[in-house]
C-alpha cells in the first residue's frame, strides 16, 4: 500500500469513528488509588454531552477509547455511565461523537415477581439479590442468589421454572403417588434453591437483617423494617439497575409516621448493591445499624470501623434433602463511605434466636442517621464456588472496595 493510500485509509477511519461533524467531546478518567480497578462505572452529566456535541432531539452518540466502542447507559437521573477498567493511578481518555451506538447486551437487570409473595430480584453479571414483598408481612432482610459459570441474567429463568404450570402439575401428580418422587422432581427441575450449574438461593435470612439491611435503633431495640409497601423500578439495565422502595409508616423514639425510602442500585462488574436510605418525618438524630445475620458463634465475623466494613462467612443451606450437597460458603460484606462509631457482634437470646429461625445474632456496623440526609452504604457478597476461593481473599477485596468508595474515579473534561 502506498503512503497516499495509507493516508486515505486513515482519513476514512477517522470519518467512520467521529462522523462527518466537527463536534467532539472527550473526558479523561483517572484511577486515584494505588490498586487496579476493574469494570467500574464512570459518570458524567448527560447535558454536558448533548451540549458539547450539539445534539438535536433524537440524535445519539458513540463513545470510543483505545480504538474500541465503549457501551454506555443513560440513567434515570440524566447521567451517562460507562464501564472503565484502570490500572493503579492510570488515566484513560474517552471520546464522544455523534453516531448510532451498538446494541448493549443486558447483563444487569431486575424484576418484580407477584406470584412469589411479591419478591423483587436483581442481578449483575457477578451476583444476585432479593427482597421479599408485602405479602410476607413480617420483618425480613436481604436475600442472596449465588451465581457462577455465566455473566448473563439467570434469576428470571429460575422463577419461570419454579412457577411453570406444567411442571407444577407434574409435581402435584407425583405428590399423590409418592412424596419422595415429587421432592426429587422439584429439586431436579423446579427449585431455585438447588444449584443447577449457574447458582442458587442457598442463603439463610429469616426474620433478621439478612445480608445488610440498615435499621434505626430506639434505645436498645433494633427497629426491624417490615417488607416494602410500594416499589418503582427506575431503570433496568443494561449496565445499571435501580430500584426505589417505600415502606409503611412506623413510630420510633417519640416520632410518628416515619416513612423509610430506599434507592438500591447495582452496576455491571459489581458484587455490591449501593443503597441510599432516608427516613421522612424523623425530627431528631438517631443511631442506625447495618447488620449481617450470623448463623453460628465461631467468631469468624470481622468488623473494622476505621476502614469502614463488616464481613461474615455465611454457611449455605442444602435444600436437597435426598442428597448431600456442598453449596460452599457465601462471603457477605457491607462497606461504608461514612464514618462508623463502632462495629461488633450482638448475639440473640435463645428465645429470640428461635423466633428468628435459629440465627445466632448480627455483626453490626453502628453509625448515626441525621434527618434530611441519605444514609449511603454498599452490601454484597462473594462465593467460594465462583470468584473468591477463601475468606481471606474476600476480606482483602472488601477492604480495598471500602477504600475505593471513599475515593471515586476522577473525571476531567477536555
The total count of strands amounts to: 26
Largest sheet: 9 strands, antiparallel
Number of domains: 2
Low-confidence stretches: 1-21
**Mean pLDDT level:** 92
* Helical coverage, percent range: 10-25%
C-alpha-based Rg, rounded: 24 Å
Share of residues in strands: 35-45%
Assembly type: single chain
> Could you say what the CATH architecture of the largest domain is?
Distorted Sandwich
Return the CATH topology of the largest domain: Beta-galactosidase, Chain A, domain 5
| Structure class | alpha+beta
Task: Report the end-to-end length measured between terminal Cα atoms.
Answer: 35 Å
Notes on the structure:
With 414 residues, the chain is an alpha+beta fold. It folds into two domains: 23-100, Golgi alpha-mannosidase II (Immunoglobulin-like, Sandwich), CATH 2.60.40.1180; 109-404, Beta-galactosidase, Chain A, domain 5 (Distorted Sandwich). It is built from seven helices and 26 strands. It has helices at 3-18, 46-52, 155-162, 165-177, 179-189, 350-355, 391-404, and strands at residues 25-30, 37-45, 61-65, 68-70, 73-74, 79-86, 91-98, 109-113, 119-123, 128-131, 143-145, 213-218, 221-222, 230-236, 240-246, 250-252, 255-267, 272-280, 286-294, 302-304, 309-315, 329-335, 342-347, 361-369, 375-383, 410-413. The strands form five sheets. Strands 14, 15, 16, 17, 18, 20, 21, 22 and 25 form a nine-stranded antiparallel beta sheet that branches. Strands 4-3-7-1-26 form a five-stranded antiparallel beta sheet, with no helix packed on it. It has a five-stranded antiparallel beta sheet with strand order 13-12-19-24-23, with no helix packed on it. α4 packs antiparallel against α5 (179-189). The longest helix is centred in the N-terminal third of the chain and has 16 residues, at 3-18. It is globular. Mean pLDDT is 92; it is low at 1-21.
